[in-house]
Predict the 3D structure of the following.
Amino acid sequence: LEDGAVVVTPRAGNVRVLNRVGTAIWELINGENSLSDIETRLIRDFDVPFEQARRDLLTFMEELDRRDMITWRSRSSND
């Protein structure tokens, strides 16, 4: 999309239309960035307060998790 993206999980039949912020978050969910890393980027790139970045990020991630569109993994001490 011109100002966002569409994420589809064919097996589960989930479709999520993302705005600019959602698209930025989706692109940062790469297995390398922590939630803290993503918050920092949101604050910098979208000029939002920390509290708003955290709230919006957690809400978005919870929705993706509920729709089985992401898989969580813990960072090991070797990362």
In short: The CA atoms of residues 59 and 65 lie 10 Å apart. Strands lie at 5-9, 14-18. DSSP finds three helices and two strands in the chain.
